Amino acid sequence: MKGRLLALGAMLVLGGCVVQPQQPEQPPVQTLPPSQPGKPIPPAKTSSSPITPQPSKPAAVSKRPTQFAPPPGGKGRWDASLGVYVIQGQKDLYYRQRTYYHWDGGWYWGVGPQGPWTETDSSGVPPGLTRKYAQ
């Protein structure tokens, strides 16, 4: 009895391995718009000169206030060209989105204006600061 159940189970498992033959893929059917009988369809116009893209207009500079909250204590002024708050009374200290950035021959970031500081590279600071201190 046990042998028959094992054989039946094996047949069911192997039966699931049977593969259907693959059907050849047919190209999709394209439908054409109805045309008037007896009227020939003109050929598509092609241009002999290459198409050149037109330059887009530069992005407008927003006059709105920043979307970032100021640093705690309000000792910063927003610098739109850098995209950060410049901390007043501190050398090379910036703030944006709950993070302080400090330049001291390299980039550091911290959660407070006094640190502790963690070293980072230029990918860890806002792009405006990277441009200002390009090495």
Mean pLDDT figure: 76
Report the portion of residues in β strands. 15-25%
What gap, in angstroms, lies between the N and C termini? 81 Å
Q: Given the C-alpha coordinates, what overall shape results?
A: flat
Q: How many DSSP helices?
A: 2
- Rg of Cα set: 34 Å
Q: Low-confidence runs (pLDDT<50, min 5 residues)?
A: none
Helix content: 10-25%
Order of helices and strands: HEEEEEEH
What about the largest sheet?
A: 6 strands, antiparallel
Describe this structure in words.
The structure is a single chain. The chain has 135 residues and is α+β, with helices and mostly antiparallel strands. It has a domain at 76-132. It contains 2 helices and 6 strands. The chain has helices spanning 2-15, 127-132, and strands at residues 76-79, 84-87, 93-96, 99-103, 107-110, 118-120. A 6-stranded antiparallel sheet has the order 1-2-3-4-5-6, with no helix packed on it. Strand 2 (84-87) and strand 3 form a beta hairpin. The mean pLDDT is 76.
Strand and helix layout:
Elements: H1 2-15, E1 76-79, E2 84-87, E3 93-96, E4 99-103, E5 107-110, E6 118-120, H2 127-132
Antiparallel strand pairs: 1-2, 2-3, 3-4, 4-5, 5-6
Quick summary of this structure?
The protein is α+β, with helices and mostly antiparallel strands and 135 residues long. The chain has helices at residues 2-15, 127-132; strands spanning 76-79, 84-87, 93-96, 99-103, 107-110, 118-120.
